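QA checklist item 7 of 12: single-chain prediction sanity check.
[x] sequence parsed
[x] length recorded as 424
[x] structure emitted
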Amino acid sequence: MSSQQYASDGAPKTRIRDIVVRSAGAALVALEKLAGGFGTAVLALAVLLLVAVTAVTSLVGVGLLMAPAALRALHAVADRERDRLTRWGPELIGPGPAPTQLRPALADPTTRRELGWLATHGTLGLLLGLLGVFLPLVAVRDTAFPLLYPFAPEDANSTSIGIGVAHTWLDALAVVPLGLAWIAIIVGLGPGMARLQARPGRRLLSAGPDADLSLRVAELTATRAAALDAHATELRRIERSLHDGTQNRIVNVTVLLGAARRMVARDPAGADELLERAQSAAEGALAELRSVSRSILPPVLDDRGLEGALAGLAADCPVPCRVDVEATARCAASVEATAYFIVAEALTNIAKHSQARHATVTVRSHDGRLHLQIKDDGRGGADEAGGSGLTGMRRRIAAHDGNLTLTSPPGGPTTLEVDLPCGS
C-alpha cells in the first residue's frame, strides 16, 4: 500500500521542497562521511607505507623488529574505521583480538582482510575522501566568484579548474554556472561516493565467515539482555501506571460508594452528590485503564494498520508532520508495535526539544525488513546521553535485532533511522 498523509495542507510545491531538502541533506551527510573517511584514509596510507617498508626491510632482518609496531598500527586504524562506519550505519562488529607477532599474523585471516582493506582505503578511499573535501571548496569558490572578483588579482584565474581570466563583471558571472555544476555533482554523486568509500570496510573489516562464532553468541547475549531489560522497564512502567493512577481511582470509588450508602437514609441529597463523584472517579479509572492498554498494544494497529496508526500520531503532533508509508505486507504485531512506539517517542521529542517547523515520517518495507526514517528541520544536537528517550528506543529495537542510527549535527536537521526485521 502506498499513501501520503498530511497533518496540514499539502501541495506540489511542498513536495518539491521536501525533495530538494532531502537531497541537500543527503549530500551534506555524504560529504561529512567522505571527510571522515578522508581522515582514516590518510592514516591508512601512512600505515600502508609503514607495512611496505617493513616488508622490504624484512629481507635484511630490520623489518622483523618493526613488524609488531606495524601490525599494531594496522589493527588500530582498522578499529578506528570500524568505529566510524558504526556511527554512520549498522554496527560493524569486528573479529576478536588480532595477533601482533609476524608468524601468527601471516596465518591470521583477519590480518589478511585488514591488509586488503588498507590497500583499498589508502588509495581509492583517499581519492574519494579528497574529492569529498575538494568539491565543496571549489563549489563555494566558483559560485561566489562574483563576490570575490573585486578582490582578486588582475591576472588570476577566474575558475577553480585554472581556465579563463575575468576582465569584466560579465566574465565573473559566467563562472557561476560552473559552481552550480559542482553543486549538482555533489548532490548527484556524493551519496554514491560515500557508499563506495565505505563498502570495502563493511566487507573486509567485519567478522568473516571464518570468525569465531563466540562473537555472534556474545552479540545475541547482549541483545537478549537488552530485550529483557526493555521488558522489565515496560513492566515497571505499566505497574506504576496501574498503581499510581487506576488503583487510586478505584479506591476513591469504593470510599465514595461506602460513604454514599451510609448517607442515603439521613441525607439523600448528599448521597446523590457522592454518587456523582463516584461515577466521575469510575470514568477516570476506566480512561486510565484504556490508556494503559493502548500503551501495551495500541488497538489502532489492528483496526487501521501501521499506516493509519502513524497518521493518527502525525495528526496529534504539535509540529506539522507528513507521513509517507509504502509497505507491501503487514509485519509481525510486535514489530509494528515497536515501530509505532518509536515514532510516538520521536515525535514527542521533536515537539519538546527540537523547535522544528516540520517533520517527516517515512516507512518502507522491502527484503523482509521495515525501514523507518523520522526527520525534522529543528536545531539538532540530539544526544543519546541527554535523557531524551533514545536509550529506551535503542533497547526496544535491540530486542528485535534491529538497528538505530541517529544523525543530529548542531543546527539540524535531525534524522533518526530504524531498521527492523519484519518477521521477528
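[x] summary fact logged: The chain has twelve helices and six strands.
[ ] second reviewer sign-off
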